[in-house]
Amino acid sequence: xxxxxxxxxxxxxxxxxxxxxxRTTVSNVVNGTGRVSxxxxxxxxxxxxxxxxxxxxxxxxxxRKSSQxxxxxxxxxxxxxxxxxxxxxxxDFFSGLQGxxxxxxxxxxxxxxxxxxxxxxxxxxxxxxxxxVVGAYESLAPVPHLLASKxxxxxxxxxxPSLSAHTVNVDxxxxxxxxxxxxxxxxxxxxxxxxxxxxxxxxNNERWYGYCQALSENRLAGEPISIEAQTSLEAGRSLAHxxxxxxxxxxxxxxxxxxxxxxxxRGFHECGVTVPQRMSVIGFDDIRHxxxxxxxxTTIRQDSFGKGEKTGQLLLRLIESHRTGHKLDVxxxxxxxxxxxxxSTGPAPAIEA
Amino acid sequence: xxxxxxxxxxxxxxxxxxxxxxRTTVSNVVNGTGRVSxxxxxxxxxxxxxxxxxxxxxxxxxxRKSSQxxxxxxxxxxxxxxxxxxxxxxxDFFSGLQGxxxxxxxxxxxxxxxxxxxxxxxxxxxxxxxxxVVGAYESLAPVPHLLASKxxxxxxxxxxPSLSAHTVNVDxxxxxxxxxxxxxxxxxxxxxxxxxxxxxxxxNNERWYGYCQALSENRLAGEPISIEAQTSLEAGRSLAHxxxxxxxxxxxxxxxxxxxxxxxxRGFHECGVTVPQRMSVIGFDDIRHxxxxxxxxTTIRQDSFGKGEKTGQLLLRLIESHRTGHKLDVxxxxxxxxxxxxxSTGPAPAIEA
DNA sequence: TTGTACGCGTTATCAC
DNA sequence: GTGATAACGCGTACAA
Lengths: 353, 353
What we know:
homodimer, 353 residues, Rossmann fold, 3 domains, 6-stranded parallel β-sheet, 12 strands, DNA-binding
């Protein structure tokens, strides 16, 4: 037992008094500077142990101007039309990130924020060492300020016009390309693409390009068609109803998210449209549930945990180079997604209207 | 524009110099103590604005011994057998919590932790004002230390032998009771209960009691039967296979979690066991996906967002009373779940083996 | 109403 | 090796 659990927190001064040395020496032991004799060091070490001493982070931060704290910022787009209502906040991603940063001695402040909230002030106020912004779009007003502030920052799953931002993304274009090419290979000719509205610098735009590229490589393919839908289970479901009612020639759907695809699966089931016999559906992300739907979901898999780890590693490098003053070139990490074939895709129906 | 984005952070001293007053006066304005003349106050206010001044949190924390920071601790049970592999970390819960605490001026440190990690030291080190522990079990060694430390703490979805812990839970017993009673009303007689191993003070134990209670109220009901399975999609799926193979008389299943139930749904589908015709399945939580499975999932709904809000409110009260020295009675908040009937439950098969 | 002065706990500098 | 001493930025009791 290190100490009584409600005993007051010890300070360097306290420990110094106990051992009979100066607080400077104790500090040197705590920080392992090495300029303490082995003898006194061990004596101090023992007291450190028995008293359960912990350095006061605020005092240290005040001196060092570094808090060993980073922040994950998740914008909350209240505007119903502009962002996933069902923000899943991937725990896997966070886990990967946290694991890496924890090893580096950092803790994480998780913040939801309105798109209009300035974040530079809070970063400054708390002396945060770095920031990870998830899902930012150019419409986010505070982003330019963050960029200008020179605070180590990484934008994940974000698409920004600025080239000076460090980013971590999956190769969205390639992912959508994979999905579409696979469907074309199955004989589908009338394939639609479903996503949120195509913002100029959005994720969906990248996926749309990938989709278009695949189509353009195939002479028999129809025109690219984009359908807008929110990234939500319910949006998928209602879209399925609409499509079923339309009785269009569509035989396959490329979606921008698994939850959208899962909603579609459910919607088609309700309408008696069999998947994959009459309609093929392909998702994006490979969330866990994708393996347990009926039918199971063919999808584009991305490694969220690994993405978190990569983000953490890059952030640590950024912080380090910020500390030493060595500017780091702008980093753009792009992870390659893979196609996972399951049951929701199949050959194009023999007779297409 | 408040300031140049990479201008150095202002201090009270700087602002004071700019206005031509002492930093005490500026501090008084910043903290709204009221003992400043309207005249100078507005003059200072203007400079505060234009310079984009933010108080240095570390310095303030050092003085006040309060960081305006709280921590959410999520234990990670590595041990495969003892806890959900697929910890969903409910974003809804976090959102509710964050909304409330944010209004109170707090920010949140989110920490995953091994069950053996001591958390009191980090709490002390950062002068955290309060803690929320999610899913703690008695086996968590550091819990007693936390309790003894008198740090404002709330245990959510946790079952601890200690009566001195403030807790927020759903009424698990009642939830399982509701589920079981509903199935009995549908004519089922052979109903099993599926959950993780029944720890003495665990959530599952509560649910097990509720299940047993419902059975005991019905003369025709069979003996209570408990089946162990991890809380994961895959565990549900493989259990379904086992049950299908066994060809037992079981006609209904009460599960301790939606993801388990969803796994069951998938597994039964694979085995050709129709739900609900041959088997009824009922979940617990009402996660979003529950509405989009095939068939949709009958389940016991709990309000995660509301749970987060309640937790936040209680924590703020706790912190306040801790600050003023007024001890607060131990609080046990219990939210009442409700039954949501969907498609995965139906009348008991007419002929039971 | 405003200013002075001290302390919060730590670290960095510079003597000894 | 070790120890004074001065910041870091802020809040507050006390004096003016």
